[in-house]
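ok so for the tutorial part 2 we go from a plain amino acid sequence to predicted structure tokens. step 1 is just haveing the sequence, like this:
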Amino acid sequence: MKLVQSLLIGSVAGLTLAAGAQAADLPAKKAAPVEYVRVCTTYGEGFFYIPGTETCLRVGGRVRAEILYTEPVARGDDAIGFYTRGRIQLDARTATAYGLLRSVVRFEITRTSGTPYNAVPGGISTSPNVAEAFIQFGGLTAGRVVSFFSNGDLATEHFGTLRFDDAPDVNLLAYTFTFGNGFSASISLEDGLDRRRNDFIVGGIASNALDYAGQRVPDLVANLKYDGTWGTAQISGAVHQIRSNNLVTLALPGVGTTANFPDTEYGFAAAAYLGVNLPQLAPGDALWLAATYTNGALAYMDGGNAGINSSPYNAVTANGGVGLVDAYVNPLTGDLDRGHGWSIAGGLRHYWTPSLRQSIFGSYMRVDYGAGASAFTAGGVVTGLTDFNEWRLGSNVIFSPVSGLDLGLEVIYARVDPRNRTFIPATGQIRGSDSGWEGRLRVQRDF
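step 2 — the prediction. this is what the tokens look like for a chain of 447 residues:
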């Protein structure tokens, strides 16, 4: 019996060894290589290599929530407004033999309620928006990005409106020449539709209101810029086409009645920007200034705001007397007369502690029109456009308990002073100087 058991065990062991030897002779299947995500340190924090490529990608975003209080003018006006915005941003960069290849896409969805954010009292709106989408390749920039007229490197940390070209996003095609030592120059073709201002409805002489015709040429923008360790400086210029769709009828002595479109005019704007770092006060402290002159291109100094609301909101009244208009039809000549103005804005940011900072800021704007823009009633009240001044002064305090989180509170006082008392046809009111307060509470997380 023991002999039989020994034979069986030996047979099984022999078969096992033989099978193992045959298995060892078979080709082994190699495991697929694992593609790990690598950190990219070339362009700063948050970038990683897209697996299988040499392109670095950063995924970021923002959540912002605001509550705004403004002084109501009428019973139907909202004094409280709510604002919520969500942002998703993708930034892809690749080093090439021709220079950096960069692509950025920024999506934003904004939900607002209340007159301070909406033109209609009680209004609610949701606006999905491609805020930025552009390609940079060497010196070329194409897409939607901050206008080259503006200087986005200024430390302008304010929530509300100030009167200068406050880094608006526009559609453009530009080229930047880099000279070294911090100097560069850019020339840009930009969408003029983003720079039109004829929001004003001329009361009493409505035929004077500019009706923009179709765009034939884009705005031409150029700048010369310096970026250094001490700060930044830039001078900018822009040319803007004013093409009217108004068919003007005039009765000329010895000629009779004629009907023609006014000749096309070209407005222009010029600006100077200065930003100075002040680390001797505290790390992160900075001072900034912006001065702008416009003639027929008032959008280049209005803070990027297309809408013109009453004083508690933007401190420029609409539909009666005070407004921003690139040009108007002169009722005596039938030609386009350009509006012009200038503004100066500035501010100072100071860090009281690494997590607590404060900014103080302000702006002054002066707008002038010619004699054909307005008319006087028997009571000496102006209908149409009138010259005016507007100034703004504000401050905010921002607490950042952790990196990327801002808790801010801001107050702005604004006053508008028209040269004459004005009549508002929509309400039948006669208004002179006006002023208003606004306060904002902001919670923002960047990641």
